[in-house]
Amino acid sequence: MVIDRAFVVLPVLPADVASLDGCLEHLVAAADEASAGGIVTTVLVAAVPVAAASAVLNPWQPLVSLVEGVDLRLVPVAGGADEDQALQRGAAEAAARCTAPRTTLLLATRPGVTVGTDWISEHARHHVAGATASTGPVRDGGATHALTANLALRMDAYLADGLRRSAWTLLHAVTPVVGPLRISLPTQA
Predict the structure, then answer these.
(1) 82 — alpha (psi -120 to 50), left (phi > 0) or beta?
(2) In terms of pLDDT, which residue wins out, 180 or 137?
(3) What is residue 149's DSSP assignment?
(4) Is 144 exposed, middle or buried (0-12, 13-18, 19+ CB in 10 A)?
(5) Residue 114 DSSP one-character state
(6) Helices (DSSP H) in the chain: which residue ranges?
(7) How far apart are CA 137 and CA 151, in angstroms?
(8) pLDDT digit string (tens) for 59-95?
(9) What is the mean pLDDT of residues 130-136?
(10) Contact criterion met (CB below 8 Å) for 100 and 54
(11) Taking the chain, what is the end-to-end CA distance rounded to the nearest angstrom?
(12) C-alpha count within 13 angstroms, C-beta hemisphere, residue 98
């Protein structure tokens, strides 16, 4: 098994715009490392506040265009959508762009999560070993754990099951943890 393509879906709601720039810094670094290892990566920012997200993404476009094998795209999401709807819209966009589902990863994270530079590569290594889905350790400061903060699955599994929120939850609960992933959340003052 070879993983040679990755789509990272980042759902962005109005409250997330302030943390988007910092998140992109880490995601682009992870995409750059994955690309250096032969995994072409597209980061899909599925944003409800399209204008606000565009303002953050625009300065990133010239930089990302210089990095071979990395692409950054805005996926507009209808106003009033929740995180799950933004995630589903981003995943649908990834599926539409995918040409080789068996060798493609679909990853999800959130703006408040900081991923390590090896985040995509570590998930890919796990999938090369035969996993269909994987998750990693994420500690949230809130009362609930963000189920989509660190989840990866092969695109063929996504396409076969048409995953909805309940399926993401189940995958998160039963998939092996990929380690050692260094993921942290910003501290709250």
Answers:
(1) beta
(2) 137
(3) S
(4) exposed
(5) B
(6) 17-36, 50-57, 60-65, 83-97, 119-128, 155-161, 165-174
(7) 10
(8) 999 999 999 999 999 999 998 899 888 988 999 999 9
(9) 80
(10) no
(11) 45
(12) 26
pLDDT in tens, 35-67: 999 999 999 999 998 999 999 999 999 999 999
Residues 31 and 66 sit within 8 Å (Cβ to Cβ): no
Q: What does the alpha-carbon distance between residue 74 and residue 45 come to, in Å, rounded to a whole number?
A: 5
Decide if 32 contacts 120 (C-beta within 8 A).
no
> Higher confidence at residue 183 or residue 37?
37
Helix, strand counts (H, E) of the chain:
7, 6
- The mean pLDDT of the chain is 83
Instruction: Copy the structure tokens of residue 117.
Output: 């530079």
Q: Which residue has the higher pLDDT, 164 or 12?
A: 12
- What CA–CA distance (Å, rounded) separates 175 from 167? 12
Listed residue (69, 74, 66, 75) closest to 31, CA to CA: 69
Only one residue has tokens 């493609």, namely: 104
